[in-house]
Write a structure and sequence with these properties.
about 260 residues; mainly alpha; globular
């Protein structure tokens, strides 16, 4: 469980014991990102379920999404904003990377953050409470599994520094297993229809990364954060689609 604790320490503001990690130790913790997503999703789903007992769907969905952002300190949202500021506002690769390192948010970044919050809130508000609870658990785990998958198949922009060292030290077989287990969670929640969720998620993240590679030639930490946000949005949107088609959660899941 040391890997899970380290992943939670890196990804969240939860009061877990922190430590100074070597690149090897952090690289090993990366495989625990989907498990950390389950913990985060559990808190978010709990807030959604409790507030949905007496508040409107939109308000309970808003509080749940904001809980997730608060738990991570806006970690992924910040990455999304920096990514779109850079890719939308830079003309050259070097200019894009320079903008990405700027902590200030520009118009493209603000629009991206507002957009992802709106999509997640409206999608979650459209779901029945029971479906929303299980989908939140899946979204937070599988979206981080997608991030692990990106790190397996892609390469960092920089050839030196922490990001490059994490990529070098990443144990790819373990990371692949971690991503596959996260994908399996979709089947646990939606049955065979979960394979469609995984397929659409892979397509969305792949298209995003192809665009990114065309712009700067690899990933950065900010781009991984953006990929996580695309993952959450995709899974929640797919849940709305499946509910609209009359598709149900697997029957043995408890009703909450």
């Amino acid at each position: 469980m040391k890997g899970l604790r380290r992943a939670l320490s890196f990804l969240t503001r939860l009061p877990v014991p922190s430590e100074t990690l070597t690149s090897v130790e952090l690289a090993r913790a990366i495989a625990w990102f989907p498990a950390a997503g389950l913990v985060i999703g559990g808190f978010v789903a709990g807030v959604f379920w409790v507030t949905a007992q007496g508040l409107s769907p939109t308000l309970s969905a808003s509080l749940a999404v904001l809980t997730g952002a608060a738990m991570t300190g806006g970690f992924h949202e910040d990455g999304l904003g920096d990514t779109f500021d850079a890719l939308g506002g830079g003309w050259s690769r070097d200019e894009m990377l320079s903008i990405m390192k700027d902590s200030r948010q520009g118009t493209f970044g603000v629009l991206a953050i507002v957009g992802t919050v709106l999509v997640r809130v409206t999608a979650l508000a459209a779901l029945p409470v029971n479906v929303g609870v299980w989908t939140l658990l899946l979204a937070h785990s599988l979206a981080r599994g997608a991030v692990v998958g990106v790190m397996v198949v892609s390469a960092p922009v920089a050839t030196s520094g922490l990001g490059a060292s994490y990529a070098r030290e990443l144990h790819r077989p373990t990371a692949v297993v971690s991503s596959l287990l996260a994908a399996g969670a979709a089947v646990v929640v939606w049955g065979v229809n979960g394979l469609l969720v995984v397929g659409v998620l892979v397509i969305v993240v792949a298209v995003f990364m192809i665009w990114v590679h065309g712009k700067i030639g690899g990933y950065t930490g900010d781009i991984l954060g953006a990929a996580e946000q695309f993952g959450e949005m995709t899974i929640l949107a797919m849940a709305v689609f499946m509910v609209g088609q009359g598709w149900e959660l697997v029957r043995w899941l408890p009703v909450v």
